[in-house]
Specification:
The protein is 29% helix and 24% strand. With 282 residues, the chain is an alpha/beta fold. The protein has eight helices and 14 strands. The structure holds adenosine-5'-diphosphate (ADP).
């Protein structure tokens, strides 16, 4: 269970996702007609913050959006989901936007315009207020390096896959990667590394030695987008409350699986009660 007294900070990206469905993805130079566009809140940090808040954790998002209507819309969504927005930043640069085209088979093309996410600064943030800070790689590496220096305990989700300074990785309490992102890591060098395995669940390595492995419950998968973000949030909540590696992993794997049951990155954010109820059914 998570303790309401804990405070978590999430540092990273907040985007608008514009999704268009089509029969087949266009080739270079080709123009095709797609479905009506759908606008969804996204960005890994915003997704993870919303997932933490849904789990009942006191969560503050540190991200940057534009002074435009999209920025207002994202802030409104975060507030509606009970994420604290007092440390959110606004920039004259437009709000970050991901243009996502998905075909009938679920294949996609994604172009991310980072926009205001590139303007995020953490110079004036006091990280001491947070029991745990959760960060990802959708903002400048220098931001992640600075957070690693100043956060009391940092969980770094190395997504999307990018080079991370070894000193930064060494400062992380836990590094979370999916199988593809893990290929860039030397897991034996990390004190704690959690690798998610999609439908196969996740595994926890301590100094390269497997200490826990958990498979997900059986779920009816609708959309796996955002499952990794819910996993990271759930793991961070458990880590902050002092759960054992196995308990934290089991909770996060179940939360990730529950997140696959609806469309969109923030479409199926489980509560702590829902995760616990699902675990007790297995
Ligand atoms: P990412 O979305 O970051 O690539 P994964 O695909 O490894 O991450 O999934 C993260 C977590 O989401 C998994 O550990 C699992 O808990 C859950 N998950 C993802 N795909 C499925 C699936 N097909 N069935 C059940 N759970 C899933």
């Amino acid at each position: 269970m998570t303790s309401p007294a804990l405070r978590l900070g999430v540092v990273g990206s907040a985007n608008v996702d514009v999704v268009v469905r089509c029969v087949a993805l266009p080739r270079p130079g080709e123009t095709i007609v797609g479905s009506d566009p759908i606008r969804l809140p996204g960005g890994k940090a915003a997704n993870q913050a919303a997932a933490l808040a849904a789990l009942g954790v006191d969560t503050t998002l540190i991200a940057c959006v534009g002074t435009d209507e999209a920025g207002d819309w994202l802030l409104g969504n975060l507030e509606q989901r009970c994420v604290r927005t007092s440390l959110m930043q606004r920039s004259e640069v437009p709000t970050g936007t991901a243009f996502i085209t998905v075909d009938e088979r679920g294949e996609n093309i994604i172009v991310v315009a980072r926009g205001a996410n590139a303007c995020l600064t953490v110079d004036d943030i006091t990280f001491d207020d947070f029991d745990v800070v959760l960060a990802q790689m959708e903002v400048d590496a220098s931001i992640v390096d600075a957070v690693a220096l100043r956060a009391r305990r940092l969980i770094l989700n190395v997504a999307p896959a990018r080079e991370v300074a070894p000193e930064t990785l060494a400062r992380c309490a836990v590094v979370i990667a999916n199988e593809h992102e893990a290929e860039r890591l030397t897991i034996a060098d990390l004190a704690h590394c959690v690798v998610t395995l999609g439908a196969k669940g996740a595994v926890h390595y301590a100094h390269g030695v497997e200490v826990a492995r958990v498979a997900p419950p059986t779920v009816t998968v609708v959309d796996t987008v955002g499952a990794g973000d819910v996993f990271c949030a759930a793991y961070a909540a458990q880590f902050a409350s002092g759960a054992s590696p196995l308990d934290a992993l089991a909770f996060a794997v179940t939360a990730g699986a529950l997140a696959t049951q609806a469309l969109g990155a923030q479409g199926a954010l489980p509560t702590t009660e829902e995760v616990v109820a699902c675990q007790s059914r297995v």
